[in-house]
Amino acid sequence: MTCHFVRWTGTEALPDLQRLPDALIAAAQELPVWRRERYLKSRALLAEMMFYFFGYPVLPAITLSPDERPHFIDPHLPDFSLAYAGNTLAILLSEEGKVGIDIEIVHLRPTHVASSHTQTPAETAWINAQSDPLEAATQLCTLRQAITKISDPEFSHGDNLRLHPASGRLRSSYFPSLEAISDIDGYLAWACARTPTINHLMTWHYQGNGVMHKTGEIIQQQRQSRSYIKLTSHVAEKVPSA
Question: What does the pLDDT look like over 103-138, one tens digit per residue?
């Protein structure tokens, strides 16, 4: 099943809100200004995606999970995940499975990246072996954050989640079937995660006024660039009984 990764870099204060329900727009007025603009932009882009890919003229109703993760009230609708970095907004959308996305500006927050979690020896060794260790550390940060958005955050740290970029594997005690991919695109590091796999990812740029521009397509094991990473969950093999 195809996942859609749409990025929008915009400087305008507010986009066209024609596809948003009146109740959602009214509720946004209660938010602080900086949160209101981000909230409305993300919902406006999600609404454009739901119209462009699935034909919904108005954004379906959204609610929050106990950990404040937004999702559609109707469980039969696609799953989605939101991420922000500077003035760039990214959304990952999939008809099946659960998804998570994260984006980071490379070299912007080295302290945050280094302290975001205790790195495993495998992660540290891989980072130090790369030509740009800070860029590599940023990618692992985005991968971990994308996976965190799928699962309960407490299951994405320590022994519950281990990344092995050198071998292309990850171990998750929360999801036995999970894939995550990451790449560097200009100044931006991004990562997408999905259960159970990411077989087909379409990448898009939203240009405003309802215009979507396809920028790429990632299919199964196809390698995209020198910085492309794909991690697949690996469950330890059981010892057969005698």
Answer: 999 976 544 444 445 678 889 999 999 999 999 999
- How many CB atoms lie under 10 A from the CB of residue 101? 27
Residues sharing a CB contact under 8 Å with residue 60, sequence separation 6 or more, in sequence order:
50, 72, 73, 74, 77
Backbone angles phi, psi at 159, to 5 degrees: -75, -10
Local confidence band at 223 (pLDDT 50, 70, 90 cut-offs)? low
Confidence at residue 13, expressed as pLDDT on a 0 to 100 scale = 61
State the angle between helix axes of 121-129 and 133-148 in degrees (0 to 180), rounded to the nearest 10: 140
CB burial of 176-207 (b: ≥16 within 10 Å; e: otherwise) equals eebbbbbbbbeebbbbbbbbeebeebbbbebe
